[in-house]
Records
---
Amino acid sequence: MSQDEALGPVELAVIGFPGSQFSGEIAPAVADLVASGTVSILDLLFITRDDDGTVAGFELSEVDDEIAGPYLELEGEAGALLSEEDMEAIGELLEPGSSALAIVWENTWARAFVTAVRNSQGVLLAHDRMDAETVAEALAEVGSDD
């Protein structure tokens, strides 16, 4: 991507797996998002916290084929955005004996919008993201007021 091209919003999601039970089910869902042009993968990192509390991070190329297999099909420029400090911070979220997948993606669907804002001299003043559970709870609360 050149300096002149718009970059859509970039997000980090951390998905925990109690007992380090990684599932390949996430990979096809992410692959569908990539194939449709909805997102672009910028980085993937597998993080584990051993029973003794030791935290380790592994790039896709460092993970056993059994775990990495479904993720190898993902297209993207994965690598090196997540730092050692990020890995440690994510590791602190994990219970001993569990793992997580940290995935950084660009919301490529928003590139045209970002370009339009830039071209109209607009400036982003605030942006926030709410998780689906919080929104569902808020909508349920609003619906119960009727």
---
Amino acid sequence: MKILLDVDDVCLDLLSEWLDRYNREWGDNVTPEDITEWDMKPFVKRGERIYSYLNEINLYSDVMSVEGALNGITKLRALGNKIIFVTAKSHPFKLHRLKQLGMFDERMDGYAVAANKNLIDGDVLIDDNSANVIGFPREAILFSRPHNTGIHMASLNKFRANSWINIIDLIDEIATQNL
């Protein structure tokens, strides 16, 4: 199968680094668990200022991987799947960070920037943005993050994964259904 993996907050834990930078600058203590909706402005003191961190050139230098992501990606490849990392927003060092953390393998993987992930051909999309998952025309998995816990996938015939172990199980289930 060709699996499309969203980069931010599925593979790389962008939200934690993003909030660390905001908290240091503004003396706040916002955690990822505090962000319970896609729009972060209501949860921070500085509203629109929160989005300016996304433009910092060194943003990805300290971003770590999401727990279990490297093992999960390695397992997906070992099962014969093709991995394409997809991201809605380009950043000069995002792909470099994936390589540094051992997630991206130039010999096997693809990388695409597309605000509309429906434009990328794949059998399964794994994303933390419910709009991308709901709109994807094939199988899709919503990766649980605090900002999407209020979205109920079962009623939409989509899957939800609470961890990378859960992702592997769901991919196995999807592959079995498609035999």
---
Amino acid sequence: MLKQPQYKICRRIGSAVFSKCENPKFTLTPTRARSKKGRPRQLSEFGLQLLEKQKARYLYGLKEHQFHAYVKKALAKKGANPVLALYGALETRLDNVVYRLGLAKTRALARQMVTHGHITVAGRRLTIPSYQVSKGDVIGIRVGSQNKVLFNDLSEKLKNQSTPPWLSLDVSKREGSVVSVPALNDYSETIFNLTSIIEFYSR
């Protein structure tokens, strides 16, 4: 798991990439940074691209080498749009899907749930947060974990859960399924610019 001083990161990159920073106190203009003397300064093109990369990396809780590996695979995918390929790979990580379905309130908690063996894919327990789910996969809670305190009141919470179009949630079963691949309209709702990220690594 990526462990970082979250408030400090939120102030530096100017975006609420962590749930604990999602309040006005930590909202800054994303295109500006501060010099060592504390004065605002305009970022260069490289700086802006680096900022977008950091937003995405921290949002998904990935180390640099992990994130770079996703970008390399997206760029190497023949006949594919690297922007959509990257977005699809990040979104279909098992820990992210658990979070998107509302089974966990944060991606960090979702990653912990997967690592501790509480989550199943197609009825099989998986402990790999980076596992890539596919269309048709059903993601649920392991039978032996259903009554744990971790999942108390989950059914009630799921009633108000909003999931992206590529996922389907069954509140009564407390499970969800992948019905399609993440699409461009899903990408438009993100807080970072994937095109800038691809350009950053293409230098």
